[in-house]
Amino acid sequence: RDGGAPLAGRFDLPAELAGELSVRLRLNRRAPDAVIDAFAQSTIDATSNRRLAGFPDARASAAFDGDPDTAWITPFHSSVGSRLTVALRPDSTVSTLRLRQPSSDQLAVITAVRVVVDGVTSDVLTVPPPDSSGVSSIAFPAASGDELTLEIAAVVPNLTSNERYNAVAQLPSAISEISGLPLARSERAAP
Length: 191
Hints:
The protein starts with 32 loop residues before the first helix and ends in a 12-residue tail after the last strand. Strands 1, 3, 4, 5, 6, 7 and 11 form a seven-stranded antiparallel β-sheet that branches. The protein has a two-stranded antiparallel ribbon with strand order 2-10. 4% of the residues lie in helices and 37% in strands. The radius of gyration is 20 Å and the shape is globular. The model has no long low-confidence stretch (mean pLDDT 88). The chain contains one helix and eleven strands, in the order H-E-E-E-E-E-E-E-E-E-E-E. By secondary structure, it is mainly beta. Strand 4 and strand 5 form a beta hairpin.
């Protein structure tokens, strides 16, 4: 069935049918991060408050998957205030993280973030220029908890013109990797 509400359930047929069954599954490209991760059987418990619409690969877990070629990408016009949340091992104490941003003239560079650990929010933290490997190390007051949220607080605006609507658009930001955190891992089965 195309479109509409999902069809789910079990039913009995009055007689045995001969033939082949054909099923087509489609990914809802706007499904929440957690739903896509469950189907992908990701072991990373990460979510975002928003991502680039229609791009399921740009979800939060991409920033924690160890692959610098994937990235969480914010929507256009919405970098500042975009947040990633990831589960930490229980009662972890954290005071640093390493952040890698893709190098692209099609993205707005993140220059400041806030870190929240179990509800305790840091001051705005400057994202230093990346080292020779492309990584920025960010230090913050030590905090303990089971969950860390990283919020984008400032970016270097990067604008492009949208000729279709005769408007200027603020390009998105992206994080290809966040490392140096004691991540919790889950064992998921597809729903």
